[in-house]
Amino acid sequence: MNDFLKRTLELKDEMIAVRRELHRHPELGFDLEFTKPFVKKKLEDMGYSVKESGKAGLTCMAGDPAKGKVILVRADMDALPLNEESGLPFASENPGQGHCCGHDMHTTMLLAAAKVLKEREDELCGAVKFMFQPAEETGAGARDMIASGILADPKPDAVMAMHVNAKSPAFRLNYGKGCTFASNNSIDIHIKGKGCHGARPHEGIDPLKVAVHTYIALQSYISSEVNPMETVIMSITSIEGGGGYNSIPGEAHMKGTLRAYKEELRLKAIDRIKDICESCGKLFGAEVTVEFSEGLKPVFCSPSFTDEILGYAAEVIGKENISDEPEVKMGSEDFAEVTNEYPDTSAYLFIGAGPDKDTAYEVGQHNSKVVFNEDILPYGAAVSANCAFEYLKNNK
Ligand SMILES: [Zn+2]
Ligand SMILES: [Zn+2]
């Protein structure tokens, strides 16, 4: 048995207690008043000197960057604005806030990984940098920690993260390879026309007409300009304007969402959507402004680095428990802000947390009834620890 796994299995009861304590006190976004000091104290008790990073993040390091490379391992700590309905005895005590994405599991696993790596700090051929981040669900946490220098002093050479998956059998390890999570930008299109009587349309500028032409032009862009072998999704999800029978409104507002798996395609789509909307406005004399939310980049995992990491993960979890096919998610993940800086050395793992090794739960993350199998905690922790340890040893 792998040494890290042997040790984390000894820590299992402790891990479950930590997980349940976090689970009882879920918090949102950057407001981690319970979680942050709780995690900080655990790390300090292990002998770490912990630094605050950004609005509510924490970081610390095991090993010595002068001895080799630096690998960053990340866990998110925030919960979702959901009323937990799991029925668990340690369910959320905070109404309207629930650990329904399993970030309490992530925090617990990274804490245990930090503990076992600290115990073997002298053997590390470099350093492991821990990133405990807030606000993954709002997409702002990683960006905030990057702005406050998490990717500098020392600069990591490689980065990895792990997510639990209730809809996958326990101990099954999956991974991203290449395109893993889509980007995500909200789109707001403001159309300023000129209101007038419905019987005298020639006296105004109809923003609804502009909205309809814009809608069609945008759909044509996706269907005929985007390479069908690549994925770019743009959906217009709201068109609002007017309300009466005999007056043409002065303004209309469209909303939508843009998703892509490659950063260059995302940037190109943003340019083209702007261009198309503004051109449609010009065509009919309306003033059109387009706004994109800051959004999230896509997560792209380096295939060769992922293969290397999976080799180390297999030492813990067994090759037979690693999926043959990589995972591609339609959703987004704010670790994208980190992986975007590491096209050749980023990995993202998923660990199954179903009821047993052959079964998945029917309900998954972001559902108020989701539950996760705690038996996987020592395995996830040992996978992270072993991957970090072995990466440093094999890349001196
Ligand atoms: Zn989530
Ligand atoms: Zn999550």
Explained architecture:
By secondary structure, the protein is α+β, with helices and mostly antiparallel strands. Helices cover 34% and strands 22% of the residues. The chain has helices at 3-10, 12-24, 35-45, 103-119, 141-147, 207-225, 263-284, 303-317, 336-339, 377-394, and strands at 51-53, 57-63, 69-76, 126-133, 158-165, 173-175, 178-181, 185-192, 196-197, 232-240, 247-248, 251-260, 287-292, 299-301, 346-352. Helix 1 (3-10) runs antiparallel to helix 10. The longest helix is centred in the last third of the chain and has 22 residues, at 263-284.
Keywords:
396 residues, alpha+beta, Aminopeptidase, Alpha-Beta Plaits, seven-stranded mixed beta sheet, four-stranded antiparallel beta sheet, elongated
Produce a short descriptive summary:
By secondary structure, the protein is α+β, with helices and mostly antiparallel strands. It contains ten helices and 15 strands.
The structural class is alpha+beta
Mean pLDDT: 97
Quick one: how many beta strands? Answer: 15
Largest sheet: 7 strands, mixed
Span of the ends, CA to CA: 25 Å
Number of helices: 10
The whole-angstrom Rg is: 24 Å
Count of domain modules: 2
Order of helices and strands: HHHEEEHEHEEEEEHEEEHEEHHEH
Strand content is 15-25%
Strand arrangement across the biggest beta sheet: 1-2-4-3-5-15-6
Heterogens: zinc ion
CATH superfamily of the largest domain: Zn peptidases
CATH fold assignment of the largest domain: Aminopeptidase
Per the principal axes of the C-alpha atoms, what is the gross shape?
Answer: elongated
- Percent helix among the residues? 25-40%
Task: List unreliable stretches of 5+ residues.
Answer: none
